[in-house]
Design brief:
The chain is built from 12 helices and 21 strands. The protein has about 450 residues and is α/β, with parallel strands linked by helices. Strands 4-3-5-6-7-8 form a 6-stranded parallel β-sheet, sandwiched between helices. The protein has a 5-stranded mixed barrel with strand order 17-18-19-21-20.
């Protein structure tokens, strides 16, 4: 059925969207798709049948950036084949900083829109279909307040809820302050009412609170993340609560106490350290020391002995010496993270670290250091995970895989560990809450057996 908006008709159309980067970007994609539904678009996984192709980009990681440019180049042939029947657009962090250059360089690209103009996607498309071309819409939101309503199109009980945007820390390697702007938080009451609506109207049971530096939530309003967690604790029907990403500099004692008392907050904290060397941390402008980070980890584990910690590590930062690298290795051995995300440093245009040209390390050195670090971490995980055998976890089943007549279901525990189990004959556990007992464990996942299937509504903890 056609929709008529203004002077334009919008027949049923399909959109193919590729998302790169962090959970914030995936949340933005969900928001984009929700808006596009109003213009009669439905999502497709087949690029060739799309009327609209969108790329939601990431400028933080070099690999994501490279993949985007590869996909954008591959779209040229499809655009040539379908001509005006296909519209191609780019959004996200790359579009925020390089939108004008993209429009000029790629003739098959119809428009670009920045991180603060997501909610204008329908207006942009209206203008495109009305005859405008080569649009670059990437102005900053200059309002004092930040207010949105979470939009979701999927049918799962999980939802990402953006509670703040931007970052004020200006780490020397990071492009986020230039692509997402300065920190702005939603008001606490708005977030609470937003999540209540998701629980009641959408059946959401697990929420992940999002922000580039979520620990800074509410500072400008005299509010805090710990206060928000306390209020969300009162929502009937909300079962689990996660948040990401944290900055160690802003991890307060109040928030650590929340991990002790909250029954809905999961037993996992992702706390990016980036390096175990004080001198590298100083060059990164991380605003804390190795000793401060270790003290934080001790506090957190004393507050909640069940909690697991994960982190991010960058190896090969400009000027990193062998001794500085070994400081990071020693930190991993001391803290024993449950898992980590590790990367070779890659310069991001416009950041201060990108100007440290004399300190840039050879790719061979960075690759060797990354390999050794990852090997150490996998050995730590493999050894520590053996202690999980015999333990019982409650998981929310997120997916399944069928192989040679066997169906294996997968979910994550409160501590964010990936757990697989084989269910009963003919049973479908998708989005069920299931108690399982771990029977074997590797560095990356656990195999378990089903104990109790609670269906889609588990009993209270």
């Amino acid at each position: 059925m056609k929709k008529i908006i203004g002077e334009l008709e919008f027949p049923p159309r399909k959109v193919w969207i590729k998302t790169f980067g962090c959970q914030m970007n995936y949340h933005d994609t969900e928001r984009i798709l929700s808006h596009l539904n109003e213009l009669n678009f439905s999502a497709t996984e087949v690029k060739e049948e799309a009327d609209l192709i969108l790329f939601n980009t990431c400028a933080v990681r070099d690999l994501a950036n490279t993949k985007f440019y590869s996909h954008l180049g591959e779209t040229k042939a499809l655009k040539k084949e379908k001509q005006e029947q296909l519209i191609v657009g780019v959004g996200g962090c790359v579009a925020q900083t390089e939108g004008a250059e993209l429009i000029k360089k790629y003739q098959h690209l119809d428009f670009a829109f920045g991180t603060d103009t997501i909610d204008q996607i329908n207006d942009i498309l209206y203008r495109i279909y009305a005859g405008e071309s080569k649009l670059n819409v990437s102005e900053w939101d200059k309002s004092a307040d930040y207010s949105i309503e979470t939009k979701i199109t999927h049918g799962s009980p999980q939802a990402f809820v953006n509670i703040m945007k931007g970052c004020n820390n200006f780490c020397t390697y990071c492009i986020v302050p230039y692509t997402r702007g300065r920190e702005k938080s939603r008001r606490l009451n708005e977030v609470v009412e937003d999540i209540k609506r998701l629980v009641v109207e959408k059946g959401v049971q697990e929420v992940t609170l999002l922000g580039q530096n979520v620990n800074s939530f509410g500072k400008e309003h005299g509010e805090s993340l710990a206060q928000l967690i306390s209020e969300l604790e009162k929502i009937d029907g909300l079962i689990r609560l996660r948040y990401t990403t944290s900055h160690p500099y802003d991890l307060s004692d109040e928030l650590i106490e929340a991990h002790r008392h909250s029954k809905k907050l999961t037993n996992h904290l992702h706390l990016p350290v980036q390096s175990g060397s004080n001198t590298v941390l100083q060059r990164m402008n991380r605003k804390y020391t190795r000793e401060h980070f270790i003290n934080l980890c001790d506090k957190i584990r004393k507050s909640n002995p069940s909690i697991i910690l994960s982190t991010d590590i960058i190896v090969g930062f400009p000027g990193e010496t062998e001794e500085e690298y070994q400081d990071t290795i020693r930190l991993l051995e001391e803290i024993r993270f449950d898992f980590l995300y590790s990367y070779k440093y890659s310069p991001r245009k416009g950041t201060r670290a990108a100007a440290m040209v004399e300190g840039m390390l050879d790719q061979e050195i960075k690759s060797a250091r990354l390999h050794a670090l990852q090997e150490l971490q996998l050995n730590i995980q493999a050894k520590d995970h053996q202690g999980l055998v015999g333990k019982i976890f409650r998981i929310l089943v997120e997916g399944k895989n069928e192989n040679k007549g066997t169906t294996r279901f997968t979910g994550r525990s409160s501590c964010n560990r990936l757990i697989h189990f084989e269910g009963g004959p003919g049973k479908d556990y998708q989005w069920h809450w299931v108690d399982v007992e771990v029977i074997s464990a590797t560095a990356l996942s656990c195999i378990a057996k089903e104990l109790v299937d609670y269906g889609k509504n588990p009993p209270p903890n």
